[in-house]
Amino acid sequence: MKKIFDIIRSKIFVLHFSLSAGLVVIILFVTYLWLSSYTNHGETITVPDLKGMKFQEMETFLADKNMQVKIADSSTFMIDKPPGVVIEQDPAPNEKVKDGRTIYVTITRTVPPQIKFPNLIDVSQRQAEAILNSYGLRVGQLIYKPDLAKNAVLGILFKGTELKVGDEIMKGSTVDLVLGDGIGNTSVDVPNFMGLTLDEVLFVLQGSSLNQGAIVYDESVRDSSAAKVYRQIPEPGDSSVIKQGESIDFFFTQNPEKLNK
User: Fold this and answer.
1) What is the CATH number of the domain that holds 253?
2) Which domain holds residue 208?
3) pLDDT tens digits for range 123-169
4) What is the pTM of this model?
5) pLDDT for res 15
6) Whether residue 255 is found in the same domain as residue 191
7) Residue 65 — φ and ψ, nearest 5°?
8) Less CB within 10 Å around the terminal CB: N or C of the chain?
């Protein structure tokens, strides 16, 4: 044991040990410098925001930034986005990454998918718009035609051609709705409502496919259910006609003098 300690304390051992330790330190230091240079240690770049760009624009934009781009997904269709544009990216905008990093992007579908057109006949305008939106379709013009069913869908046009249930159409397309105007094109003689109560008026209106307009009570009315019509617009007459679906205004009174005129 004493002999071993004597060797360790010898000048030759100390010299060799010092040289070996120094050599290891130098090797580690040189390796660190090389790795730092090779990996650009501590050097980062900011990821640009690519959202809204098309793929060709991205390649040109990233060419001088030493970054690459790859498409991760191109199957997403969005009605409010043009085809072939970036909607998601990884890494996210403004993240710090190493030089040469690849950015993976999700772009919108270039060719919209085909869908089968639903049945919208006789549904209301509001319902039709909600259904079309759920199918990824847009509403264009509202075209009104004479029909008693106000705002009911009578037909759907795509580029002037009527669509039928099951016809295929691309998502994102714009269609026009043909709606009823609530009036129709059939004319009827204006009924004589003079002396009728409100309940009687409503019964006659329903039978004539006409609508109630304004209801006006004069100062004599104490019981609206007992009041009677003393004036109407338009007035009845042999040559007075009105289209089905149009309205008539009524004036009510309980004054006998007005009713006897």
Assistant:
1) 3.30.10.20
2) 187-259
3) 999 999 999 999 989 999 999 888 888 899 999 999 989 999 999 99
4) 0.55
5) 58
6) yes
7) -110, 5
8) N
